[in-house]
Amino acid sequence: MNEKTRRFGFKKPPVVELVMGLGLEDNCLSSLDIYNIFQSIKTDYPVIEEYNALTSIIENTSGPTSYIQPQLNSFRKQFIGQNEDKLLQLQNNRIIFNWRKFTTQSPVDYPKFEPVQEEFYKLIERVKGVKDFMGSIIQQEITFYDHINLNDLFLSADQMQNALSIFNFNYPSKYLQFSLLYNKPELNGVLTFNCSSASSIDNNDPILVLETTIRGFQGNTLTDIKDWFNTSHDHLVEFFVEILSEHTKEKLGFSIN
Question: Model-level pTM greater than 0.85?
Answer without folding.
Answer: yes
